[in-house]
Amino acid sequence: MQYQSQAVSKYYFTAAIGLFVGQILFGLIIGLQYVIGDFLFPEIPFNVARMVHTNLLIVWLLFGFMGAAYYLIPEEAERELYSPGLAILMFWIFLVAGALTILGYLLVPYAQLAEITMNDLWPTMGREFLEMPTITKLGVVVVALAFIFNVGMTVLQGRKTVINLVMMIGLVGLAVFFLFSFYNPANIVMDKFWWWWTVHLWVEGVWELILGSILAFVLIKTTGVDREVIEKWLYIIIAMTLITGIIGTGHHYFWIGTPEYWQWWGSIFSAMEPIPFFMMTVFAFTMVNKRKREHPNKVAVLWALGTGVMAFLGAGVWGFLHTLAPVNYFTHGTQITAAHGHMAFYGAYVMVVLAIISYAMPIMRGRAANSNKAQVMEMWSFWLMTVSIVFITLFLTAAGILQTWLQRISDTPMSFMATQDQLTLFYWMREIAGVVFLIGLVLYIMSFFIDGDGESATE
Amino acid sequence: MFTKSMARNIFYGGSMFFFLLFLALTFDTMGEIPKRDNHENLTEEVARGKMLWEVNDCIGCHTLMGEGAYFAPELANVYTRFGGSTEAIKGFIKSRPAGGIPGRRSMPQFNFSDTELEEIAQFLKYVNGVNTANWPPNIMG
């Protein structure tokens, strides 16, 4: 570790992994509720468990992004973090606010949580992924501002690199587009239109900038390829991301009461959204092939390569599968969407966060890389989690195709619930794949506790 | 030779251009939405219904215009599916067993007052009236 203050990211990474475990446990609960409808009912109804599952995902990825920023920004800027104290303070505020929110979901009925947190004063709750109370949302804004100030000052006072610049644009964009979560008009069409300015412009916009800069950083460090080359790739990838992804928002504006020209804009531009992901795959493999050094941290390289491949498959291919308006007309809001969501989030965001954790954690613990034994175990976890997410996606895709057929295409369409009964087999197989994912995650955590010294090389 | 500064210019120029185009389309959309959004039926009662929809996290199980969770039926067309009857919607919500249905998915019993039930039903009726370009494909949602 070149700068002492980079160590603050250890807090963020640890919390991220802890919340990741929670996310997966609740994923298994809702997966089971799909087949055993009354599981944990009425104590933990599906909507509550799902909210915990999705919100924990978002929060732990945010912890991961912040940890990544606190690690790579000082190193790129070639100076200590502006204020490590502020970073630690914000860590605890974010963690406590996040934990209280999740406990609120679980311990009291959601309507009561809305009452306690005075949602009436400024109603923003109860919209998908943005379910957190208004007060928590305000807390997120405070944490985000303090964080951006902290890393921003570090960048301003230090060396300006493309990686830092792209990271900063991504983080500022993240904060700015979050502000749309505070706008919740009674008009359902307006509500939905602007809701996507947070949700889409995050995950198919500015988050990809954060992803790109983390990936570029890990590749520079592990391959030793010339910075000029990597930065050129980074620019062109994120250019394609925004060129396709901004108008690509239109693929959410097909059926929500918005003008029908969005069917053209959305289809054409989002059909090009796989391009930057494909370039990311080519980028990662090319850099690794052209490597100028053999970094002892093999597993970090594996995560980086995996990010490219799985982001392309999950976000790119599975996104394209149902993004054209004539297809989406039939698949919209089915298990096809769920299939895409799972592989896209895992491939793009989970894997890149695990890549930077894999690279940075050993260094923060005083070694260039973990022992061979620890790395092998982490590689097992890589394959178990990655293969099971592929199977989860395949089973949900199968379920989605069958659902679309039975409920929407067949001459004698079945009701939603009758259709669901026909999908049980696929839901069971998805649940089994989910259990394998959990085993992979357990191995991942165990790999941190395997003796790291042994044969590990020094930087 | 393709240089880094060319790549940078494509990034800034391209992003800026398409963001401005997006803003222009958004501006036009704001003008078009009132023709399709059924706002003439957006009453105070409907607005209260939307609030109830939100604070009970209905979107955590159901979809509305295809958005939400995929655990329970689509509700943007439930008014039509239930034969154009707000009474049928209210009756359904009211009759959910508190302990659930053994082995099956069940909607919780929310113990809504009659006023609240009416507000929710009116909200769903209003949503049903939005022009969604003929989505969903059929009555099943």
Biggest beta-sheet profile of chain A: none
* Helix-residue proportion of chain A: over 70%
**From the 3D coordinates, which CATH architecture of the largest domain in chain B would you assign?**
Orthogonal Bundle
The number of helical elements of chain B comes to 5
Q: Could you tell me the CATH topology label of the largest domain in chain B.
A: Cytochrome Bc1 Complex, Chain D, domain 2
What is the multimeric organization of the chains shown?
heterodimer
Q: Give the rounded overall mean pLDDT of chain A.
A: 97
* Helix share, percent of chain B: 40-55%
Distance between termini of chain A? 10 Å
Mean of pLDDT of chain B = 97
SSE arrangement of chain A, N to C: HHHHHHHHHHHHHHHH
Mind telling me the CATH class of the largest domain in chain B?
Mainly Alpha
Major sheet description of chain B: 2 strands, antiparallel
In CATH terms, the superfamily of the largest domain in chain B is Cytochrome c-like domain
Order of helices and strands of chain B: HHEEHHH
Which descriptor suits the 3D outline of chain A?
globular
